[in-house]
Amino acid sequence: MTEPVQRQQIGYDLAGNPMYVAPIQHGPASVAHQATQPLQPIKAHPWGAYIAGGCLGVLALTVLAVAIAFVVFGFAILAAVLALAVVALTICVLVLRSMFRDYQKGH
């Protein structure tokens, strides 16, 4: 039978618990002594392309938002412009009619 491993006590911690020597490893070497693997190369990312794509995406969204705004508000603006044109043409016709009557009377 195997006997339990006896560890040497080296003192007590602040809570009064016994402290022991760290067990000796007979197996593979510790992580610090293992051969390190070579570092993987740094993967280069095309950050300029990412930024350019983001800028183009923002520009496309802006154009789309303006187009939607023109469609949504376009009819209201068209109605306002049409009303302004009708008022201007009405004033123009009234002025011309008044001038034509004055011309007919001979003034």
TrEMBL record:
This is DUF3040 domain-containing protein. It comes from Streptomyces dengpaensis. Keywords: Membrane, Transmembrane, Transmembrane helix. The chain crosses the membrane at residues 47-70, 76-96.
